[in-house]
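User: Please run a holo structure prediction.
Assistant: Happy to. Please share the sequence and the ligand.
User: Here you go; the ligand is C2E.
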Amino acid sequence: MTKPSAHTAPRTHRFLALLWPALALLACAALWTTAVLRANAEHRRAEDQAFKEADAYAEAYEQYVTRSIAQMDQITMQLKHSWEHTHKRALLEDMRRDGMFTDSAFIAVSVIGRDGRLASSSGFKVDADLSTAAFFRQHRDNNSSALRIAMPPPELGMLRGAVLFTRRLDTLDDEFDGVLLMAVDAAYFTSFVSAPTLGAHSLLALVGSESNLRIEQDSSGAVRLDARSSLLPANAERWPVAHGVQLVDAKPGQTGFGDGRARVLGWRRATAYPVVALVALSHEAALVGAGAYWRDSRTYTSIATVVLLLSAGVASMLSLRAATRARERDEVARAYRTATESGNDGFYMVAPLRDRKGQIIDFRIVDCNERGAFFYGMTREHLVGSLVSRFERGLASAELIATYRQAMATGFHAEDRRMPDAAGGDGQLNIRWGHRRLVRVGDGLAVTLQDISERKEHEVQLARLANEDSLTGLPNRHWFLHFVPTALAHAEAHGQGVALLFIDLDEFKQVNDSHGHAVGDRLLKAAATRLLSQLRPSDRVARFGGDEFIVLLSPFDTDEQVGMVAQRIIQAFNKPFQIDQEQHAIGASVGISVFPRDGKDAATLIRHSDIAMYAGKNEGKGQYRFFDPAQSNQLKTRARLRQRLLEAIDQRQFVLHYQPRVDTRSGELLSMEALLRWEHPQLGMIRPDEFIPLAESSGLIVPIGAIVIDQACAQLAAWAQAGVRVAPVSINVSPKQFLRGGVRRELAEALGRHGVAPQLLEVEITESAMMGDQEEILAELAAIRALGVKLHVDDFGTGYSSLSQLQRMKMDVLKVDRSFTAELGRSKEGTVFFQAIVSMAHALGMEVVAEGVENAEQLALLRTLGCNEVQGYLVARPMPAEAMAALLTQRFLFDEKLAA
Ligand SMILES: Nc1nc2c(ncn2[C@@H]2O[C@@H]3COP(=O)(O)O[C@H]4[C@@H](O)[C@H](n5cnc6c(=O)[nH]c(N)nc65)O[C@@H]4COP(=O)(O)O[C@H]3[C@H]2O)c(=O)[nH]1
C-alpha cells in the first residue's frame, strides 16, 4: 500500500480549485440545453394544439354555416313554391303576419318580378329597377333554381350588412318569373361562438367560393363585410383545398392577414353550398403558455446557473485556501523538520481522520524527522503514513488520541508524558519520558517530542530523596503530608475510618544527649524496624522528625482495635534496645486521632494526635491516649506560650535579676548569680520555672541563652562604666546550649564586645547535664575554662555524679542544692552529708556555695562546716541591676545580727 504523502495535499486542493468551476460550467450547459429543448417542445406542442383547435373550430363552423344555409335553402324553396302557385302579392306580408320571418335576422324577404321591380316584400320597399343587378341577370339568364348566396348589389344599398339569398322563380311553363330574395343579417352567420371564445386576435370568416361573399368577425365581435376592410388574406389561394390548416405568418399583403398578425388558419369548404368557413386563431395567443413556460424555465435556469457558479466559485476559493494552507503546513513541516533534524527533538506532523459526522477518530503521521522515528524504533519511511492507533498501544493510544483531539480544539497543548513500554508495532521505544508540545497548524498538528528521560529520572530520584528519611529509610514528613489527604479521600469514598498514631520515644533525648548522636541514630533505626514489625503491610509509617513517628491505620473497625495496635507498639518499645553491648530503655508514648471524628484534614488530625500524645506523656510515659478536645486546651496554652516566647526573644522582653553570694563569715559580696526574668508587657513578670522547661524542650533556650550571656556582659560593662565596684556574675547555661555547641565562642564574643574580663564571668551547669561522658560537652567546658571563666556545678546533690568525676572535669565551684541546705539543722544526716561534701570538695580544690540559705541557724551551721559562700533569701532575694549596684557599693551585706 502506498502511504499518502503530505506533499500531495496541496496538488489535490489545486486540482479541486479547477474542477469545481469546470463541473459547474458543465452542469450549467446541461441545464440550459434541457431548458431550451423543453421550451421548444412546449412551443411545438402549443402550435400543434393551435392547429388542432383551428381545424376543429373550422369544421364545427362549416357545419353551423351549412345548417344555417340549409335553413335558408329550405325557406326559400317553400316560398318559391308558394309564390309560383299563388302569385299572391300579399303572400309575404301574410306569411309574416302568420309568424314567419319574425327572427330579427331576417331583414327582408321579397319577390322581384320578371321586370326587375319589387312584386311583393316583407320588411323593405324599393322602387328601383333591379333587372340590371348581377343576381337578377344571373337568375334570369340561367334556368337553375339553385340558391344563390351573395352580398347585396349596389342597387340594394339599404341591405348593407345582410347576406342575400336569391332563388329563380319560374312560371308553370318554367319561364323566368322573377327572383325570390331573402336578406339575412350577416352577423347571423358569425354568431357561431361568442367573440372572445376563440381568444384574442382570432377571426371567424365565411367566404363565398363563387361569389363576393365575405363575412368576418374579429375577437372584439366586430363584423366586417367588405373586401377593403377585410383582415383575411385577399388571396384565396390560401385555402385551395376542401379543408386544411396552415400558419399564416406575419406578412401583411395578399398572402398575409390585413393587420400583419400571424395566425393559424383552419378552413372547411361546405360540400352543399359554395361557401368556405374559416377560423383563424392568434398564433401569439396560442404560444402564450409556451412563452410563459420558457420565461419561467429561463428564470429558474438562470437562478440555478448563478447558484452553481457562485457555489463553484466558493468551493474553488476554499480549495485554493486549503491548498495555501496545505502548502503552508508543508512549509511549516519542512521548516520544523529542518530545524529539528539536527537537534535532539523528535518532530511529527499529524493529520486527523474523521468519521462521517466529522468526529476525529484517529490521526495519521504525515511527516516526521529521523529523530522522531528513532524514538519509536522505526525509520522515517516506516513511520510516515502510520495511524497513531497502530503505533501506540491500547490505552496509551486512546489517551494520545484524546490529547491530540484536545490540542486540535484548543490549538496548543504541552505535557510531560511517560511513554509506554513498547511501540505498537512491537518495536522497542527509545524514549522513556517525553516532553510533548502540540501546535495546531491548519487542519493538523505539529508535534515536537523531547527526550526528558534523564531529567525525569533525576526528578524521580529527587522526589524519592525528598520523600524518604535517609536515616531509617521510612517515608518522611514531606511524603506523609502529601499522602494523608489522598488516603483520607479514599477512606471517605469507601466509607472507611483512618486512625493516626503519633509516637514519641520517651527517653530518647536522654540517650542521645548522654551517648551521642551516633548511638541516637542507631537507636532510631532500630526503633523504626521494631515499629514496622508491629504493623500490617497496608499500614503506613513515616518518621515525622527527631524521635517522632506517625502510623496511619486504614481501614480499621473499632477504637479498641486501634488501641490494641497502640498497646502493641508500646509494649514492643518497652523492651530495651541493645546497641553496642549496652541496653537502652526508651519506651514510647502514643497519641491517636481518628478520621473523621477528630478532624477532617491531615493538619488537624496530626495536631490532635500530637496533643493526645503529649496529654498521655504528661500523665506518665509509656501510654496511649485517644484525642479528647479537653487535651487540646492545655496544649493550646503551651502553643501560645511558645508563640509568646518567640515574640519575647524578638522584642527582647528578658531582663536579668541578680542574687548576691557572700562570704560565709564576713558577709562580703563576692559574686552574684544572674537569674532570668521575663517582663511580659501584659502579663507582668514571669518566673523562669514557668517558661524555662518549655524553652528547653522547644530549643528556644539556645537564643534565650545567648541573650543572657550578652546582657550579663553588658551589665558588667555598665556597672564598670558607672564606677561601681563589680563582682563576678555567674550565668546559667542549659545543657541544650552545650549540645548545640558554640557556647565558648558566644562567651568570648560577648566578653570581647563589651570589654569585660573573663574572670568576671562564671558559668553554672547543672549536675544532671554532665552525666555520662559526653566528649563534646567536656571539650566545650575545657575551652570555656581556658578562657578564664570559672565553672560552677549547679544543683549539686540532685544528680549522681561523683566528686572525682567533677574534679576530672575541672569544676571550680560546687553549688549545693538548696534541698540539702534546707536539711541543715533539721536532721543529723543533713548536716553530716553537707560536711562530707564540703570537706571532699575542698580536698579536690573546689569551693562550696550553699544555695537557698534562708535563716541564721543555717548560716551558723555553714560557718562551722567551712562552707565558702552562701546565697539565699537570708542575704538577699534576686533583684534588678540597679538595686544590685547599691549592694555592690555596700559590699558587706550582713547586718549586726548575722555578723560573726
Ligand atoms: N526557696 C528559695 N529559693 C531561693 C533562695 N535563694 C534563691 N532561690 C531561688 O533559687 C533559684 C536559684 O537558681 P537555680 O538553682 O540556678 O535555678 C534556676 C535555674 O535553673 C533556672 N534559671 C534561672 N535563670 C536562668 C538562666 O539564665 N538560664 C538558664 N538556663 N536557667 C536559668 O531557673 C531556676 C529557677 O530560678 P529562680 O526562679 O530565679 O530561682 C532561683 C532563686 O530565686 C532561697 O533562700 N530559698
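The two ends are 123 Å apart (CA to CA).
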